[in-house]
Amino acid sequence: MPPAGKPPDGRRPDRGWPALPGRRTPGAPRSGRPTPPRRAPWHDDDSYPDPPPPRPIRRGSDRDALPPWREALRRKARAEAAAEARPRGARSGPRAGAASARRSAPAPRHSTGTARRVSTGPRRIVRKPTGNHHVRVLVVRFLLVGALVAAGLKLIQVQGFEAEALAAKAEQQRTTTFEIPAVRGAILDRDGTKLAFSVEARMLAFQPNRMREEYAEATRNNPAEPIDFDQRTEEIARAIHEVVGDRVSEEELLAKLRKDASYVFLVGEVEPAAARDLTERYPEIIDEYRSMREYPGRSLASNIVGVANWRMDDPDVDKHNLHGLSGLEALRDKVLSGTPGREVKDTTGGSDTLVIPGSDREIEPAVDGSNLVLTIDSDLQYFLQQALADYMKRAEAEGGSAVVLDSHTGEVYALANDTSFDPTGPLDTSEMGNPAVTTPYEPGSVAKVVTALCTIQEDISEPQDVHMVAGTHQVADRTISDAWPHGTLPFTTTGIFAKSSNVGTLMLAEECGKDRFSALLEKLGLGQRTGVGLPGESPGRVPPRGQWSGSTFGNLPIGQGMSMTVLQMAAMYQAVANGGVRVPPRIVDAVVTPDGERIPEPDPKPVRVVSEDTAKTVRDMFRAVVQDGDGLNDGTGEPGSLTGYQISGKTGTAQQIDPETGSYSNSLYWVTFAGILPANDPRFVVGIMIDRPNYSGGEIEGRSAAPLFHDIASYLTQRYNIPLSKKASPVVPLIAD
Amino acid sequence: MTALEPARAETQDKAGKERTPRRPARHGRIHAARVALTAWLGRPLASFHLVLAICGLLVVLGLVMVLSASSVISQQQSYSPYTVFGKQVVFVLVGLVLFWIGLRMPLRKIRSWSPTALWVSLLMLVLVLIPGIGTQVNGTRSWFQFGPVGFQPVEVAKVALALWGAHILVVKRGLLHQYRHLLVPVVPVALVMFALIMLQPDLGGTITLGVVLIALLWFAGAQMRLFVALAGGAVAGALILALNADYRLLRVLAFLNPEEAPDSANYQAAQALYALADGGLFGKGLGQGPSKYFYLPNVHNDFIFALVGEELGFLGCALVLGLFALLAVVGMRIATRNIDPWIRMVAATLTVWLVAQAAINIGYVVGLLPVTGITLPLISAGGTSVVITLLVFGILANCARHEPESVAALRSQGPGRFGRLMRLPAPDPYQPPAKRRPARTPARPRGPGGSGSARRQHPRRSRGGTR
């Protein structure tokens, strides 16, 4: 207790604070008997035979401190002690000796060594078993410190010498490599409208066998809340079904959940938020990252864009990713998918997914896929798809394709087939192709433009020159006749093409010559792939010049005996529209990297086919195809005309080979049309092919594609605000008077 | 606190004498430091201050490491990273109160209460075995559960055995050359405790209690052959225990032959080594150790030393080792400097207990010993352990204040700042027991004279040492 009035430091307190030993204090012995005589404590402490060294405190403190009034008491006590000691003799020998050695006169026999030796009693023998306390303390201190030092040495070994190897093992057991998914690039149309893009989704999975065990164990550990596997899986199936809807039925889910397997996939594309909600309610559901491909336009341009889906066929789970299945998704898969990155993290014990905070160390960042910008105009594409499909229905046709090209750049503005598919629904491979580029056909009269180009280019005949055209024409062993029977008529050159006279065309072609004709076919890109940038493109077929038989030259000028795709057909007319320079069509405009850099696709190499004048003359000449000449001077494609615009085009009807007879059929046709809009200042080239329409007996749509061209041209002029032609096409005589 | 001037003067004189003959001048600074250290250690209350410092450092380090080690498991169990740490803080606060009580209570009172403490602890050891009163955790019925806090009676039993055993042995010190006095009643009582603890079962507690018993017998001065016999018995007992339980056998086999042991048996030891090695020399930094993320089981109690090694590196480990080594030295110093035989024995025994417990814990963490569930005093999370350890530190500090020099200094110079703040009473000087009488009257008839006041005393009054 601190005294109330504390004396300054260094001064002995004289009140309140207990004084030095020996003085009677409140804490000192309470008994009324006198304090025992002061002796050095170790004299009493026989069991600890090593006397501590004399302490300063002990020295002389007794006598200095003892007040005079206590001196008498002390003397008395000592005398008593001495008196008591003497009769007992041997037992208290050493003590009495020690005491008396200091103060009273010693009795000689007690002070001798012999007396100690003879004396018997417990105190003598005590020394023997107790050993040396000081040594024992030293030994213990040595042992304890030694043990700690040994631990320290082992630590030096573990944390110093072996640290690297052990730490490597430690790192190995907690390191997990995570794949950083690369976001697959989007596919955009020429205006940036997204045709396809990726979103993050979750895939739900389950571990049936492991859960069986864990439920059983949880039930064992906590019998109060048993978990029944069947009941639990039923709950889970119900919950998942509520979230994903009718994509998967509850029974299907339940069958998967209760399967005897270590791992089952439950549902594929689940919204992340819904998946999170599910896994919060049922932590045993595994949700894994997966990317989902969205096609907002559904069937819009689906034959061009194709479809990508999540592939899990690779045994390495990290390689699972979106990959293209058809169309540009498949062809440009590498550009679109990018490079997944890798990230190394430390995960907690017993888990590959719980990451220790702050342990991320990215090794390779993911490079997202690039975007693909197409030349397609999605509005036009939509219209073309709709119009074509509608027309096919009216024509009762088996199939058909159409393409719209920019007349100067060769860019594909739209490319449609009669069938398209919905990439978000179930996939039917028969609908997923793109016949417009993969399936060639015999073009028929549309190909007469080659003869026309040759005629004008080689100055064989002027448009208004008159030719006497008979009803039939003999080429080698074949007799070629016109589509309608007639005697010899005075066709103008324009009339030959506008009336689509086979005989007249062959007459002009023969003047042109096989070699020049063949060279022109090659310049027009027939028999070669256009390189448009779509998968599975067909080159079509043109018989090589060396293999021509006698009748070959009777077929080729009228568009039989060779084949081309609708794209090649349109490209052919693009040369006419573009002043004689053919620019091979293309559909991919540019690749835009994830950091925004636009890398244009390599420009196609233009090919000069005919002179600009020839192209213009032919273009003007072909305006007559759609002219309304009051019966006799009607062109074959009059329904293709568009009020206010000069249209240049060519109809075609090609016989198909009847698979039953193996010869040209009289009921199966390809009906084609190629047109240039507007003819005076071309903006677009349209190619149309209709496969096996109801040719005889049906509507006009079954016999001609010109009405469809009219619709497309009409839409194009409005959509692109194409200025009206200053003058209507002049009506020219087709059959001279 | 002020040192005793004579003592200081003496050391300085000594140092001065040593220096003059051979030390060149350039060693002056080192020499001066040595002199200063010697002088500081020569101060009367040096032991007391060292005990306080060791205790404070260990408590702080322990709290920091418990926070770091338990945050993950707390987060997992209760969505707050501070649950275990919060409990530990509460226990440390309770322990500090007990520390203060142990420091403040007169030692003779502690001694006089030691038999009661022993009986209470025995009673608790019995009660804890009764289902409904004791709670079973991880297959061990060793807890009294009061709501969120648990209490392990085995810790109390250790202190009680140390205090009471020292008391009995000091009372009997004149008769210790006879085995029946040396061994009875201390050894039977200890054996009863062992049996009760093994019924829980708690091997770690038994081992620690065994250390306490051996320390008592050692400092009581039992013959060497007794320890040889005890060592034999311990080996035999360990063998029986190991063969009794499969998991113990696996642990021992794994320890003896870590390469061939199955992963599961060796898992903890291997993980501890990984954690230590991961720390290297300087450690990964506080809170950065990955092994607490469910790699190292019991990382916040049994294996916290591995986390110290991982986060603070070899330096942190060396600090802990150094503190316990210093505790060993200081505890032994207290034991030698005191003159009261009970204090000597208690100080030595308690020190041995704490340091041996630390050494065993560290030993199995670093792979020198097979794994046993013994905690690292003051650093491991564990309520009762930290409370009782702080009480023991308090008693040890109290013992340090009873060194004769400290008594003199405290009585002459006043309690000093710390003492005043803690309202510590002045220590009583050692009062050697009054006249002793033998336990039995000597057979030889005595003469008629003598025997004044001493004979009138009841023999039981003389207990030797502190009263």
TrEMBL record, chain A:
Residues 180-344 form the Penicillin-binding protein dimerisation domain. Residues 400-712 form the Penicillin-binding protein transpeptidase domain. Residues 88-109 have a biased composition (Low complexity). Residues 1-128 are annotated as: Disordered. Signal peptide: none annotated. InterPro entries: Beta-lactam/transpept, Beta-lactam/transpept-like, PBP_dimer, PBP_dimer_sf, PCN-bd_Tpept. Pfam families: PBP_dimer, Transpeptidase. It comes from the Bacteria. It is found in: Membrane. Transmembrane segments: none annotated. Residues 59-87 have a biased composition (Basic and acidic residues). Keywords: Membrane. Belongs to the transpeptidase family. This is Penicillin-binding protein 2. It comes from Actinophytocola gossypii. The lineage of its organism: Bacteria, Bacillati, Actinomycetota, Actinomycetes, Pseudonocardiales.
TrEMBL record, chain B:
It is found in: Cell membrane. Keywords: Cell cycle, Cell division, Cell membrane, Cell shape, Cell wall biogenesis/degradation, Glycosyltransferase, Membrane, Peptidoglycan synthesis, Transferase, Transmembrane, Transmembrane helix. PROSITE patterns: FTSW_RODA_SPOVE (PS00428). It is an enzyme of class 2 (transferase). It comes from the Bacteria. It holds the Pfam family FTSW_RODA_SPOVE. Pathway: Cell wall biogenesis; peptidoglycan biosynthesis. InterPro entries: Cell_cycle_FtsW-rel_CS, FtsW, FtsW/RodA. The chain crosses the membrane at residues 50-73, 85-105, 117-137, 149-170, 182-199, 205-221, 226-245, 303-330, 342-366, 378-397. PANTHER family: CELL CYCLE PROTEIN (PTHR30474), PEPTIDOGLYCAN GLYCOSYLTRANSFERASE FTSW-RELATED (PTHR30474:SF2). This is Probable peptidoglycan glycosyltransferase FtsW. It comes from Actinophytocola gossypii. The gene is ftsW.
